[in-house]
Structure formats: C-alpha cells, structure tokens
Specification:
Layout: H1 12-15, E1 25-33, H2 36-47, E2 68-74, H3 76-81, H4 86-89, H5 94-98, H6 104-107, E3 135-141, H7 144-160, E4 165-167, E5 171-172, E6 178-179, E7 182-185, E8 188-189, E9 192-193, E10 225-226, E11 232-233, H8 258-261, E12 265-274, H9 276-287, H10 294-302, H11 318-330, H12 333-341, H13 359-363, E13 371-373, E14 381-383, H14 393-396, E15 401-408, E16 420-428, H15 432-443, E17 470-474, E18 485-490, E19 494-504, H16 507-515
Antiparallel strand pairs: 1-3, 1-4, 1-7, 2-3, 5-6, 8-9, 10-11, 12-16, 12-19, 13-14, 15-16, 17-18
C-alpha cells in the first residue's frame, strides 16, 4: 500500500466491517431534529465518542479495541436542519438530496418492495417534518450487554438536549411489534456467531480492498483490481472516500468546503426481508429436477457453495468441491481467504461454472464484462484484448463496500412471515455511478451480461405478474451435449422494508457541523 490514510479522521465503520472484527451484534437508531442549535450540541457530544478507523492494539501508545463502537451519519434533510449553508448543500449528489424513496423506480422497489409496505419509520412524507429521518447512529458491540451499555450512553446524550433530537420509532419486530431501534446480529449456530445469512450462504467474503487500509494488506487477492499480469493491487481510495483520487484519476464530485467532504462517504441503508419459505420451496422444487441436485443448484443461485463459500469457478461440482475442502481444511487463515476470493471468470466465459445471473457475478463481475463473441466456438465468449487499461476497468468503477448484519431469527423455514432478513449498508463515493447502477443495470437487468431481461436470482425484483414472470438460464459448457437449465417463474426472494441515503462525515467535518462553522467560501 503506497498511501497511508488519515485513520484518525475517518469513521471506523467506513474502513472496518465490524462483524469481521468481533462485533456480532448491532443497534441502529434514527433521530429527528426539533431544535437545530441544541442538535448541534448533541452532534458535538456524540463526536467525542465516535469510533475512528485508527488501528487497535495492546502495545503502549496504541488504542485498545472498545467493547462497543459508535458512528454517526446524516440524511440530506438532516444536514439542512443542522444549518449547513446552501452553497454546501447543493454540492451533494442529487440522488442523496432526493432520498431513497424518491429513487424507488431506479432501484426496482416495486410490488411488495414499494415504500408503502416499508416499516412505519420510513413511511413519512416531506410535509411531516417531525417524522423525517435526520440522523443515523449505529452501535456495534461484542456482546448484547455491551450493546445495551452503548445504548444507555446514547440515551443519556439525548436526555441532555431536552427534546432537541427525538428518537424515531417504527421498526417492525416479531409479532408486528414496533421498536425505537433496529437490532441486528449474526446468525448463530451452536451458540456461536457465524458469517451466514438466513438463506444459509456465507456472506461478506469479497469486500473491496482500497489504498491506504493497513489491516487489509493480506486480503488483496480477488478483492482489489486485477492487473494485466494477473496480480492484484488496491482500488483507488476515491472510489470510496471523497477528497481522494478515484479510478478515473479524478476527484469524485463533492460539496464545498473540502474539509466538509474529504474523508467522508455516502452510505446506502437498506432493510431487506428474506422470504425464506419461498426460497426453500423453490429450491426444493427445482433441486429435484436439476441434474446436479439441490446443493449445486443453491450454489448456482449465488456462485458459491452454501457450506463453506467455495466459489463455483474453483469448485464447479461435488468432486472438485471435495478437493477444495481437503485443501481448505489444512490451509492457514491467509491461504483460506485467498482460496475464497482469488479467482476470475477468465476460464468461465460461457457461464458454465458460475451463471451470468448468479449473485456474486452480478455484484462484482471482475473482468468478465469485457466480453466479445468467440467465433471459434458457437455460443461461447472471450475476453476482449487491449480494450481497457486493466482487465476489470468497467467493474472497478462500480465497487461497493458492504456493511451490516442479519436481523431477526427464522423460526419456521417453510414460512415467509416473521421478522428476519438483513440490514445492509453499502458505502461509495458516487451513489449513482456505483450503488444505483449496480442495482438497476446488474441486479434488475441482464443486458450487460448478454442475458436480456434476466435478473440476478437472489436480489432481483422478480414479478408475480404472469406477463412479467422472471427466468434465468443456468449455462452449460458450449462444447458439451448438455442443455442449459431454465429457472422459470422465479419468485421474489427478498423484499425491501425501508432505507435511506446518508452521508458519513469525517471527524473534522463532524466538529465543523457541531460548531456551526461550515463555510464554503
């Protein structure tokens, strides 16, 4: 890594996926501002406890890892209420200013994912200013007791400002109860936290690595950007942090002054309900017909095997998976990490191993979008030579940092109802170019993958309308006599239950906001 970031100026949740660092539980709290002057006092008090990205350690001079972390972000309306000057506000992205609900058509939040079905906290309109979500605060903790300690501390700060900020309730829990916060926690197995989500897949494997993050140096292969010689280097910092050079060798658009935007980023918060009953039923139905069986079919949905996350490009069938497992069992942690992430689609341009509609191929296509038809083999594709500076240049501009944890428990895997899913937070420097592009063009549309209207299998906004029924093709080797398998009438496995766009400021910007001294001139 050639660049060293200003870790003390960057909020910790931007750099760290806290779940990987021993924080399996979290609580997300949202606030409405009623008095902007006292609200700035509240922000100032919170800022003193905000967890930064500084390295932790037990040696003299190092900061000890806390039992619970705290981070803060603001909606566009929240920044307005806090008194940011108009000249600064107009520099934020138009997507951020509009808010997530206004972008529902771009995001595919239709049908059961439409905003009218979201949790009550998100069902306000712009006229109801006392219900508007202005501030987001997250508490990530090592234990439930630590989380509760952090929450008590937060409530004390709220009490000190005498109603200047108000906690917004309306998070749906079990039995349709409504809570003043959204809790999340790792899925447990044998009383131990796992990296799995409620469909049973290991999650969070391929999070991007970018320049300047000291504790990601061993996680580079497969997570950075691939060079022509096959090596991996970190992505440009400006893909994820404002005020830094991005992959286009430019500074991403950002508001003035520089001290307001530098080391900050945009966060996409989405609560996603998982229809586990529908997923299990559909998998069972097609698993009985699919030649490879149920578990290989489940792997085709995502691009990884469910039990250990082995990528299909490295383990495309049971025999190769057994070999992968044997090597994985004796590998050290760094080698294991590399086995899960260090791969490309160069030898799978037909999609025979990892389908074009599989989750990991749609979210991070690597270099596989630089495709042209291979005239020597009917139906096959190959990499276009020399068209781009790096093999994955198209994809490198669409990467997303992923944060968050599952929520709720699945009490009956044959039913959809209940309070279970995932709270996902995605961080990027450009909401439109990164998150919204991926959601619209790669998740809910397949043209870039030469897959027509076929959506991504897991996250796609599949329709129950007979005229709009979704399908996906599971490709096979074009040199074989096998026929592709068609997944027909794909139901919607995931439904949106709420969300918003937020800005995560740097520590410098937080102090400026708290003191009311943001000056774009």
């Amino acid at each position: 890594m050639t660049q060293q970031l200003e870790l003390t100026d960057i909020q910790g949740n931007v750099i760290r996926a806290y779940g990987r660092f021993g924080y399996p539980v979290a609580r997300y709290v949202f606030f409405n501002i009623r008095d902007n002057s006292k609200a700035r006092e509240f922000v100032g008090a919170i800022t003193k406890r905000v967890t930064t990205a500084v390295e932790w350690g037990d040696h003299p001079g190092q900061i000890k890892q806390p039992h619970w972390t705290l981070n803060i972000a603001f909606s566009y309306q929240g920044l307005k209420e806090l008194g940011l000057p108009r000249t600064s506000l107009v520099g934020f992205s138009p997507e951020f200013a509009s808010g997530m609900k206004e972008r529902k058509d771009i995001l595919g939040d239709d049908g059961p994912s439409s905003p009218e079905y979201w949790d009550p906290i998100w069902c306000y309109n712009r006229v109801e200013r006392d219900k508007d979500v202005h501030i987001f605060i997250s508490i990530n903790a090592q234990t439930g007791c630590d989380r509760d300690e952090g929450y008590r501390w937060l409530l004390n700060q709220v009490s000190f400002v005498n109603g200047a900020v108000v906690i917004l309730g309306g998070h749906i829990g079990d039995n349709d109860e409504q809570f003043d916060y959204q809790d999340s926690h790792a899925v447990m197995e044998n009383d131990q936290p796992t990296a799995k989500e409620h469909f049973g897949y290991i999650d969070g494997i391929g999070d991007p690595v970018f320049e300047g993050v000291p504790y990601d140096v061993d996680r580079l292969p497969g997570r950075g950007k691939q060079m022509d010689d096959g090596t991996w280097v970190p992505l440009a910092t400006g893909e994820f942090l404002l005020g830094h050079i991005d992959e286009a060798h430019e500074y991403p658009p950002a508001p003035d002054p520089v001290l307001l935007s530098r080391n900050g980023t945009y966060m996409i918060y989405r609560k996603l309900h998982q229809n586990v009953g529908t997923f299990e039923s559909y998998l069972e139905e097609h698993g009985q017909k699919y030649p490879g069986g149920k578990e290989l079919l489940a792997a085709k949905f995502v691009g990884r095997w469910r039990d250990n996350g082995a990528p299909l490009v490295s383990a495309p069938d049971e025999a190769s998976k057994d070999d992968f497992n044997a090597r994985f069992d004796v590998a050290n942690p760094i080698e294991r990490d590399k086995m899960l992430s260090d791969f490309t689609y160069d030898d799978d341009m037909s999609g025979a191993k990892c389908p074009f509609s599989a989750h990991i191929r749609r979210i991070n296509p690597r270099a596989s979008l630089q495709m042209v038809r291979d005239e020597t083999t009917p139906g096959a594709m190959k990499i276009s030579e020399g068209a781009f500076d790096t093999p994955g240049a198209l994809t490198n501009r669409r990467r997303l940092l992923r944060r968050g944890l599952p929520y709720g428990e699945v009490k009956d895997r044959l039913r959809n109802n209940g309070n279970h899913g995932i709270v996902i937070m995605m961080l990027n420097a450009d909401i439109n170019r990164q998150f919204e592009f991926v959601q619209q063009q790669w998740v809910n549309y397949g043209n870039d993958f030469i897959a027509g209207n076929d959506k991504e299998i897991i996250l796609g906004n599949h329709s129950a309308d007979d005229k709009l029924l979704s399908k996906a093709v599971l490709q096979v080797d074009p040199n074989s006599d096998e026929a592709p398998y068609i997944l027909s009438k794909i139901p919607r496995f995931v439904e949106t239950r709420g969300g918003e766009y937020f800005f995560i400021p740097s520590m410098t910007a937080l102090r400026m906001i708290a003191k009311g001294i943001v000056d774009p001139t």
